[in-house]
Amino acid sequence: MDLIWDGLREAIHIIRTGDYSVWSITLRSLLVSGSAVLISLVLGVLAGAVLAFKDFRGRGILLSLVNTGMGLPPVAVGLLVAILLWRSGPLGHLRLIYTPTAMVAAQTIIATPIVTGFTAAALRHLDPRLRTQLYALGASRPQMLWVVLWEAKLPLLAAVMAGFGGAISEVGASMMVGGNLAGETRVLTTSVILEVSRGEFAPAIALSIILLVLIFIVNAILTTVQQQERM
Amino acid sequence: MPAKISLRDVVVRRRKMEVLRVPALDVNEGEVLAVIGPNGAGKTTLLQVLALLDRPAGGEVLYDGARVRGRELSIRRRMALMMQDPLLLRRSVAENIATGLRLRGVSRSERKERIDRWLERFGVRHLAQRSAHKISGGEAHRVSLARAFALEPEVLLLDEPFAALDQPTRETLLDELAGALGETGLTTVFVTHDRSEALRLGDRVAVIVDGRVRQVDATAAVFAAPADEDVASLVGAETIVAGKCVSRGEGIASVRVGGHLIDAVARDGLPEDVLVVLRPEDVTLMKPGKHPPVSSARNHLHGTVTRITLMNYQARVSVDCGFPLVAFITKQSLEEMGLAVGGEIAATFKAHAVHLVARGAPGAAGELEASKTAP
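Structure tokens for the assembled complex are given below, as produced in the milestone run.
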């Protein structure tokens, strides 16, 4: 028990003083996962809209694939991206392995199916005649899509929350394609692993607390927005 | 009157099945064209083609005489469509109306003016800031009307706009719609399955059955002289029986129906085999033996009451006079005559009230009528 209490006490001290570069690591986590979620939002919303509105052969299979993708193992994604970006790999010339960009790419692959799946479900839930009504009101196709997305913004916020949660808490892919380089690609999750492997529980606890609080804050903001919209 | 929108040789298919075929149809500038037909007849499809929301497999749509290519946005923005379900967005009432205006690039000040004016016009201005999902069904329909009129379109397309509402609300909204149409003089296509709505609003009526326009004419003409059996039934002629013309003279034909000879006004070119079409409100019932009042009614028949159905203000009486005949009488007359099922009754009607239709393939007359409207 002492280990836990001492660890907690020291963790709070670390958070207060900013030792072990916790704040720069936190900022990097936010930047990497935030960028990945933004990119996956653009890709996922478009893909979700196509899956929801377009009637084409193989749509059922694609939807199943997307649903499977919502639970993609980060380690597998990390392996794929690592192979692609490896110096001798097909995209090796881009020299992106062990960079934050590589981590953004991996997290985008993890978050995009989540956003796609949520978007498709949200849009399919809307009355299909709404699109006809919007066209009749004089909407062009992009205008129709914009209004419809706005109409489904509550479930879309859930997509953002799920996508962000999936991206910021994954560790396998970031470790593999980022390499956990201090000051460059070290993020909250990879730092926790490193500290635990060194037997340094206090900074690991401090980083975990920050990670949990971050996820809580982001979800709390989005949930508040959802609640207000529903009223 | 020039045609605002026209359809030429339009064919619409769904899953390779033809659901609509319109050789020619014109919606004239400033008129209200009521489109009636049974469920599944193709009325909504017709409206969607006119609204440029459905692209026909063949034929063309003309707007102001010019051919429209595909679903041209600039033309779509000159029309407004109101559907049966208001389908309001999850935002305030005012924002719902603003959305359509914003899509069409109407300026902010103009938007505000139009929203206020049309919400006021349809009596829902007090709901402007209310969430559109927290108003009643009748209010939602008023908002939907305001949204369509606020677009200030050249053509208004209405797809059974009040079908889901209760009778009193529907009556009120029909009155308000009729008023607004009168004020604006908008070219309007009004789809309904309720003939009374068509009678009330339509300058002309188009009747669609099985994806074909069977008849297009002035409202009174369609109701007085339906082109075929289906149209007759749709416009409320409840007595439709087969007969044979046995003689003709001085514009009156004698038709044998169920063992009786009936006098009817005859048109030129009618064949021997005809359908006798009679509206229930044109038949007068009285107790047998009573002398009919002096009138121009030339047809007097006797029969047995087979069924009495009470309706809002009147009763529908089915009589077997050798052929089935239907008449409407007031509830008061029903009581005064002491009518009961199985009782004897006399029925009279004028030769003018009897409409004769050629017995034959349905639709043939419709294409003829439809093409008549082509310039």
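Residues 22-53 of chain A form the longest helix (32 residues). Chain A touches chain B through 16 residues (CB under 8 Å). Further analysis is deferred to the final report.
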